[in-house]
Amino acid sequence: MQLPFSEEQFLSVFASYNDDTVIVIAALWVLTAAALVALAMRRRGSTIVSLMLVIHWAWAGAIYHLTYFADINPAARAFGALFLVQAVLFLWNGRLEYRWGRKPRHVVSILFCTYALLYPVLVLASGFHWPRMPSFGVPCSTTILTVGLLFAVEPGRHRWLSAIPLGWAIVGGSAAVLLGVTPDFMLLAGAGMLLLNIVAPRVLMARAA
Known about the structure:
- With 209 residues, this protein is mainly α.
- The protein has helices at 7-41, 45-68, 76-92, 104-125, 139-150, 163-178, 185-199.
- The longest helix has 35 residues, at 7-41.
- The chain is globular, with a radius of gyration of 16 Å.
């Protein structure tokens, strides 16, 4: 598969994004952590989670894709539009209930959400260096986080919300192979989990032993 940009261009985009928006990246990480803590403590977690997802998808679409990535990849305009659509979908479904418990699907949810928070550290550990590296608030970390949170929703409801995250999990997961971003292999795992959630949403419903 031939990419329309080089690895050097790819990393230069991240360098510009990280340098220009580092304060917002940090604030978004704190907001995300706070939303997940609220979810874990069951204190109005769903409201904060819904807001956080809207911000993530709007930010990744409008800022990363349309403002930065579009400079080296014409397809980023379409990607950005889809990310903005996903933000609107989460806004429209702002009353979704996100819950964590002891069911296997909730374990999957916590695993993916924790991985998303650790994503910048995992990228650093894989050999990249700041600021020329994927960080937080970018499409891949956003999608990993979303996979996790979709498993915190009652199965069988709003499965169509998985369509765009599934598409990016496949597209973005290719970076793990083509660009050596090994933490993005989690996107490919996420694509498989989303397919399971769409086709057989109640497979992971049973309580853990």
